[in-house]
Design brief:
- Among the domains are: about 50 residues; about 110 residues, Band 7 domain (Tetrahydropterin Synthase, Chain A, 2-Layer Sandwich), CATH 3.30.479.30; about 45 residues, no CATH class.
- Helices cover about 60% and strands about 20% of the residues.
- The chain contains eight helices and nine strands.
- Helix 3 packs across helix 5 and helix 6 packs across helix 7.
């Protein structure tokens, strides 16, 4: 290879190297800032293919998607000085590329740490203005809205990021407090259970007494009605017996004697002591005389 060809080859390699360093691409999922000797000359490079001056310009690229910062659980005090352990997270994205680069140096982990610190500060202020009931359920949505507004105002100005959403994952009592609260809640529930049982027993006694009284009344009325019906039946039977007796007294006496004989001699092992001349055997004697 001659010297001329070698020179051409070296120039071609140098041109290729310079050309490759002069071109850069910003993706749709990225935000970029163009620097010239460390100074920002283009604070927000749009997505696409761009040209820069090698060794003079430098490009820093950042993730433009919505990112998550998971803050560590922190201990906060409510308005009535009750301790809570709050676990939260936030969604954020780069809003002002130049401010973001200036404040964080383009380091995502540093931005996450600074944002997490501001989230905890905002939560501490919001929780301190509310009672335990309001933090847990009463004004939880309002707390999140106010925290998001206040946090966005600071994050845009200081970090160049936009906080999309802030949410509380979990609110717990500290272990030292939760045991005492659990014991107090358990005692209250036991007291309420005893009151309900006492009311239930009182109600049951009332229902049982009313039922017993009603049973007594029903039995008395049934006994009265049965005695009345029995009396009417006895009277009707006596009247029928009287009519039958008056219709044919001799036949009535005869049938009664037969019934008495049947009942008296139904059991062969019984012994009956009766005078032979008594009225019990009058029909036997009459049958003997007639025979």
């Amino acid at each position: 290879m001659t010297g001329k060809n070698l020179t051409i080859l070296l120039l071609a390699v140098l041109a290729l190297f310079i050309g490759s360093n002069a071109l850069f691409i910003i993706k749709e999922t990225e935000r970029g800032v163009l620097l010239r000797f460390g100074e920002v000359v283009n604070p927000d490079v749009v997505p696409g293919l761009h040209v820069k001056i090698p060794f003079v310009n430098n490009v820093r690229k950042f993730d433009a998607r919505v990112l998550t910062v998971d803050a560590l659980p922190e201990r906060f005090l409510t308005l009535e000085k009750k301790a809570l352990v709050v676990d939260s997270y936030a969604k954020w994205k780069v809003a002002d590329v130049a401010k973001y680069y200036t404040a964080t140096g383009g380091d995502e982990s540093r931005a996450t740490g600074l944002l997490a610190q501001r989230i905890n500060d905002g939560l501490r202020n919001q929780v301190a203005d509310r009672t335990l009931q309001e933090v847990v359920s009463g004004e939880r949505d309002q707390l999140m809205t106010q925290l998001l507004d206040n946090l966005n105002a600071r994050a845009r100005t200081e970090l160049g990021v936009e906080v999309v959403d802030v949410r509380v994952k979990k609110i717990d009592l500290p272990p030292s407090v939760s045991d005492a609260v659990f014991r107090r809640m358990n005692a209250e529930r036991e007291k309420e259970a005893r009151e309900l049982r006492s009311q239930g027993r009182e109600l049951a006694e009332g229902i049982r007494a009313a039922a017993d009284r009603e049973v007594t009344v029903i039995k008395a009325e049934a006994y009265r009605d049965s005695e009345s019906i029995r009396g009417e039946g006895d009277a009707s039977a006596a009247s029928i017996y009287a009519e039958a007796y008056n219709a044919d007294r001799e036949f009535y006496d005869f049938t009664r004697s037969l019934r008495a004989y049947r009942e008296a001699f139904s059991n062969k092992g019984d012994i009956l002591l009766i005078e032979p001349d008594g009225e019990f055997f009058q029909y036997f004697k009459r049958a003997g005389e007639e025979g």
